[in-house]
Fold:
Amino acid sequence: MNHSQKTLVSIAVLTYNHQNYIEQALDSFLMQKTEFDFEIIVGDDASTDNTSSILMSYKERFPKLFNLNLHSKNIGMMPNFISTLKSCKGKYIAFCEGDDYWTDIKKLQKQIDFLEKNEDYAICFHDCKIFNQANNKLEEDNITKSEKDIYTKSDLVTGNFMQTPSIVIRNNFTIPDWFKKSPIGDWPLYLHLIDDFKIKKINEVMAVYRVHQESVWSSKTDLYRLKKTVKVINIVLKNIKFNTLDKEKLNSTKRGLKRSIRKIKWSWFRSLKK
Structure:
């Protein structure tokens, strides 16, 4: 990808109908204290609420910082993700969706300082809190478990343990054709770019991941999520090189997911017969 000499970091933001949350996200980027320039790339997938007008008002106030991709019709999560990635000119890409936000003013600086000094790392992430919209409370992250501070591709094959708003990656990859077929964007992207590089975890809470009923993934049924994850595993097994042990880990995960799918279908079938 073409890097701008001036812009070190691109903040990639995917949004859809986030009018109640997007300002908190954007303000958390604007509060960042950095020794480098960054840009904010927003892909809005034809929101039907006021999200795009909120984005336009920020663009008017900070014209040089914001690059808005306001799609006129809904293109879907993966095409929106890909077009946003392709617009990122920075040497690094930081992720945050429009309903999440950052909490530490030095978040970007800390992560970039680490990656600049450690070229054998492709990804840097950190701890997050969870904001549960249903009860309006901040909670500990009980969704993802990450106990160590250094990870490899072999750790990543067992599943994604990193929350999106915590992640910074090196922008030194190309987007392969197979990626467009994946129903999930983040995990296969990390598997694609990690190769022999490592992942660093900073043990500080510097962002909040919001859980709410309208979110694209959380709002789907368990069956939907399991089926899509099986599809992703099939895609990465076919298109990414893994050693024998990692392949077996992925196949084992796939078998477990398929068992869960059968259980859900069976219980649904039994409930129909009652």
Q: What stands out?
A: The longest strand covers residues 198-211. The chain has a mean pLDDT of 93. The CA atoms of residues 242 and 248 lie 9 Å apart. Residues 224-273 form one domain.
